[in-house]
């Protein structure tokens, strides 16, 4: 069965564009990465493998037919990053699980409960959108509208305004071009709600 969380298309995709999805899980496995890296390179589903010991012992994996990069650690943690769609993330997951199954590390392309400590879940999605306002934004005025205590704007350091809405875990970057970037979100519903609130506040 495919993960419904990774396939939850809805009407918000027409307003919001996905720039990056980060998802992770954990197998109940100890992996020998030096051997595994050689074995993975021989598989058609894998286009590139790098055994990196910088910032921890791990494999950096690129998959065929996917923009997503996989990270696999000795302790069984796996992370996907760089996906710009749910389909792309699902393809990377399919390739990783099938690769480990073909090497005899997993019993099936759908791991059993005894092989999984934490199932794959989305940790963060970066969304982009464009505000429905006329002309470029004056970010100094935007600071006042949104509240100085909730915004940071230092154009000599960074061209965008950083906005942290009350009662939300997300951070919003706002640019004079009207482009908006949402981070710290794991569902489209939250991004949609925050976008609607932002539009309302700026169109007062």
From TrEMBL:
GO biological process annotation, one example:
DNA-templated transcription initiation
**InterPro entries hit by this protein:** TBP, TBP_dom_sf
Signal peptide boundaries: none
For this UniProt record, the keywords arranged alphabetically read as follows: DNA-binding, Repeat, Transcription
For the keyword Glycoprotein, the answer is no
GO molecular function annotation: DNA binding
Q: Member of which family?
A: Belongs to the TBP family.
UniProt name for this protein = TATA binding protein of transcription factor TFIID
- The species this protein belongs to is Halogranum rubrum
Biological classification of the source: Archaea, Methanobacteriati, Methanobacteriota, Stenosarchaea group, Halobacteria
């Amino acid at each position: 069965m495919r993960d419904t969380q990774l396939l939850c298309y809805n009407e918000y995709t027409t307003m919001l564009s996905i720039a990056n999805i980060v998802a992770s899980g954990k197998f109940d496995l100890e992996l020998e990465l030096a051997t595994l890296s050689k074995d993975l390179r021989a598989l058609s589903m894998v286009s590139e493998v790098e055994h990196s010991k910088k910032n921890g012992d791990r494999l950096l994996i690129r998959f065929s037919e996917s923009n997503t990069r996989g990270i696999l650690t000795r302790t069984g943690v796996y992370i996907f990053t760089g996906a710009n769609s749910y389909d792309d993330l699902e393809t990377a997951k399919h390739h990783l699980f099938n690769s480990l199954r073909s090497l005899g590390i997993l019993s099936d392309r759908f791991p059993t409960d005894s092989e999984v400590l934490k199932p794959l879940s989305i940790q963060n999605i970066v969304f982009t959108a464009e505000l429905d306002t006329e002309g470029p934004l004056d970010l100094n005025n935007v600071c006042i509208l949104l509240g100085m205590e909730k915004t940071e704007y230092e154009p000599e350091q960074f061209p965008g305004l950083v906005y942290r809405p009350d009662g939300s875990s997300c951070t919003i970057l706002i640019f004079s071009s009207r482009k908006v970037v949402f981070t710290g979100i794991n569902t489209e519903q939250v991004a949609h709600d925050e976008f609607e609130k932002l539009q309302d506040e700026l169109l007062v």
